[in-house]
Structures are given as C-alpha cells and as structure tokens.
Amino acid sequence: MKLGKLKALAKERLPGKWIFFLNVLRTLAKGHSAFIPFKATYNEDGLACSKNTPFLEDARFVAAYGNAVGKHLYVDANVRWRCHVACWAGSMAMQLEGDFVECGVNKGFLSHILMDYLDFDRSGRLFYLVDTYQGFDGRYLSATERSRLVDYASATESDKPWEMGMYEPCYEAVVNAFAGFKGARIVKGAVPDVLPEVQAEKIAYLSIDMNCVAPEIAAIEHFWPKMAQGGVVLLDDYAWPGHEEQLAAMDAFAQRAGTKILCLPTGQGLLIKH
Predict the structure, then answer these.
(1) How far apart are CA 20 and CA 124, in angstroms?
(2) In what order do the strands lie in the sheet with 262-263?
(3) Are 136 and 254 within one domain?
(4) Within this chain, do residues 120 and 58 fall inside the same structural domain, yes or no?
(5) 236-270: per-residue pLDDT in tens?
(6) Would you call 274 exposed, middle or buried from its count of C-beta atoms within 10 A (0-12, 13-18, 19+)?
(7) Which structural domain, as residue segments, surrounds residue 257?
C-alpha cells in the first residue's frame, strides 16, 4: 500500500488525538522539538522558521540591539525579527525627506535600537517619541480594551496577559535613555491630545504601537497627510491575537486611503504611502 493511502486510512480510522500523538512521536524521532518539526534558525516572539536570517549576524544590528538590552528598556528582549523589520523600514525612510515619529514608546526599546542602528543624529532629523509614559489613558479605551484591563486585574499571575502589565511610570527613565541622542524629542501625554506638539511638517517614518484602537486611528489620520511619498508606517500590534479591533480599524483606514496593509508573520503590519 502506498504511503498516501496509509495516511488517509490512519486519518479515517484513528481519533484526532492519536494522529497528533503519532505526529509528536515522529517529530521526536527526528530529533526536533515536539512542537517545531524542523531545525529552527529563528524561534522567538511567536515566530519559528527555518529560513535564512542574515540580520542576526549583522554587526550593526547586533550592537544596536545589545545596547538597548543593556539599558533594560524592554521586559522581553526576544523580539529581534520585529526590530529587524523596523530597522529596514527606518533605512528606507532615511532615503526620503521627513522626520520620524513613534506613537507608543513605553521605555523606548524599539526606537532606541532604530536611532542607534541608523546613526540617526547624523541625518539632522528629529525623532518624536510620543507616549503617556505611564500606560493607558482610560478615556480612550474601548469596551473590549477596558474589559481586558479588568480581566488582567482579576486574573491569577500565570494567566495575566503579559502586555497589559508591562506599563509603569517610565518618563524619567526614557529621558535618561535618550539623553545621548540630540535628535530625540520626547512628547509626554495621550494621543490624540498631544498630536499638535509633533511639529514635523513632513514625516518619513511612523511607528504606531499603543495597544488600543482609538488613539491609533487618531494618530494615523493625523499624520497620513504629512507622510512623504514612499513613507513607511509600521503597525506593531496589527496581526497579534487580542488586537482584532485594531486590525479591523486599520484595514478600514487603509481602504479609505486607497491602499492596503501588508500583514507580516512577526505580527506587524506594514503600510507604504504612495
């Protein structure tokens, strides 16, 4: 009997749990992880693959990443592919006219890597870092987002959504972390309240990572007309589970703007102004 027929017969005769069990045994027999049936070249941040990863050996990237990790700017520093995407986006934006903006900074892990990697100060541009620097502003949370906060407060420690508990007052820490970058402009306050404080006339790079839909849509609607031709918008939360409201709202915005968002396996969304 051919292998294909054997597989079909097994699926027909055996319960699903036994098929899963046999697959696990087969995977273990090959010397791989029970959950990743191949030798992974990358396995972190919810993404495992066997593709080439040259950015992991890029000395400039490794140094910039290590500098940010050394300053303890993130609770989980295993997000290298996401940071690689940001560095690529920033590199493309450096070829355009305009400043950089990040809405949703927290302690500044991503933006610190980006400024370091790009040697940003040599460009003479400004990088606006916009955040409350103390977590969510309840005025702008949807009912679903508010319920997630309630769920976080009542959950046991092991069940808490990690991203909901990572925010603490960090303004002074961010000021200190970016003291070495003359192009950094730290804007403290909630979006959309503080958007007028970002005085850039043209924007080449926009990062949005506020974990709630209303401020994110307010930000992209405010900055989109100022985006340079070919400007890059990076949406950190776009494809992550639990952020479906943001995904739907951003897709609706892109449709209104006559464009489309690229969904990345890192969980990010990428949008180019054309």
Answers:
(1) 56
(2) 184-188, 127-131, 99-103, 203-208, 227-235, 269-272, 262-263
(3) yes
(4) yes
(5) 999 999 999 999 999 999 999 999 999 999 999 99
(6) exposed
(7) 47-272
